[in-house]
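Q: Please design a sequence for this.
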């Protein structure tokens, strides 16, 4: 067996801990998205469809019901054109995992499934042992579920999303009380926010992280609604200044920061920051970075600069079935990058070293930051 084959086998076998998703456990009812129509109407594919079919306006697309939207996406991207993009290839990877070939066949299959049974199959096939949700108490539907006493599947960890909470028209004291209330209720593994640029959070947030021993996650570089007609598919990205992150990490050495950036241009700078501050953990290849070529490039860069002390990927999945393709595709890219670093070593790694590194990168490091 070649070195590349050993690495690929070890990475494929290692259980993944998915540090950031938008998934919900079955206990959250309709918020738990799965099935082929949900896959096809994911916002990546919506944007691609509206680019491929300019005669269809965003308004006309969104006026259709979900099934009709999915029909249009399938026709535009899988019938009239080859599914070469990562988003379309991902749909095919999911269908292949279940032995499905056509849209009609896929709809019949998913219609026959129970949510709980499907969850077990997806987690098993994706090799995911645990994942972190994105939990926004400012969302009325989700808030209603939590207040009704929802207790998610133990493999689904909570993460408290702060985007709406920090925008509340209240003083720091009120914000801190709200944070404490939700931390007690949902028991999050970290607090999180998405930002257009690095900015210090309110002091109440840092104090809550410090007092509860929770990391603070920043997903940086998103520009909301650059094309508002596309709705959820209309967000863009920007390159950001990481100097404020250095100041934040230096001023708060007892707070752990999980950081991912949306622009390729920031990947190197984030590695430099992480080399200087051990309380900064680069994690994942987020959103527009979630392409195998960039996952491999970014993982190789991080291995060169940080060794195996980062989290190479999270899925950012919004539809349960996306775990299948996002982790299968990411594992290939991670294995290729890891093989290249082993090949640069003067001594060939042992099988035990390869297995250890694969387990650390796919799940061990993430689990240690969530504990």
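A: Design:
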């Amino acid at each position: 067996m070649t070195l590349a084959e050993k690495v690929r086998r070890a990475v494929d076998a290692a259980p993944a801990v998915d540090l950031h998703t938008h998934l919900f456990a079955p206990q959250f009812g309709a918020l738990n998205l799965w099935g082929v129509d949900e896959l096809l109407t994911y916002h990546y594919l919506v944007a691609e469809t509206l680019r491929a079919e300019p005669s269809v306006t965003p308004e006309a697309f969104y006026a259709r019901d979900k099934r009709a939207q999915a029909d249009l996406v399938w026709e535009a991207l899988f019938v009239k054109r080859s599914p070469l993009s990562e988003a379309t290839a991902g749909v095919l990877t999911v269908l292949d995992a279940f032995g499905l070939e056509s849209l009609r066949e896929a709809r019949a299959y998913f219609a026959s499934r129970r949510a709980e049974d499907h969850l077990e199959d997806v987690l098993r096939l994706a090799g995911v042992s645990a994942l972190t949700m994105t939990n926004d108490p400012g969302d009325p539907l989700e808030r209603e579920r939590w207040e009704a006493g929802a207790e998610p599947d133990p493999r689904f960890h909570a993460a408290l999303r702060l985007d709406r909470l920090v925008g509340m028209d209240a003083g720091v004291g009120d914000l801190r009380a709200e944070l404490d209330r939700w931390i007690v209720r949902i028991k999050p593994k970290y607090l999180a926010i998405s930002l257009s640029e690095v900015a210090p959070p309110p002091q109440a947030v840092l104090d809550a992280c410090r007092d509860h021993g929770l990391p603070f996650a920043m997903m940086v570089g998103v520009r909301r609604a650059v094309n508002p007609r596309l709705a959820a598919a209309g967000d863009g990205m920007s390159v950001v200044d990481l100097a404020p992150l250095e100041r934040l990490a230096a001023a708060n050495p007892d707070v752990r920061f999980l950081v991912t950036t949306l622009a390729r241009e920031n990947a190197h700078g984030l590695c430099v920051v992480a080399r200087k501050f051990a309380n900064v953990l680069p994690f994942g290849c987020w959103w527009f970075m979630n392409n195998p070529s960039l996952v491999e490039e970014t993982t190789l860069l991080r291995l060169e600069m940080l060794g195996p002390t980062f989290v190479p990927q999270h899925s950012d999945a919004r539809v349960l079935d996306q775990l299948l393709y996002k982790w299968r595709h990411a594992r290939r890219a991670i294995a290729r990058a890891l093989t290249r670093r082993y090949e640069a070593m003067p001594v060939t790694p042992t099988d035990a070293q390869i297995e250890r590194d694969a387990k650390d990168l796919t799940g061990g490091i993430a689990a240690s930051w969530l504990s």
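Q: Thanks. Anything notable?
A: The CA atoms of residues 296 and 334 lie 6 Å apart. The chain has a mean pLDDT of 96.
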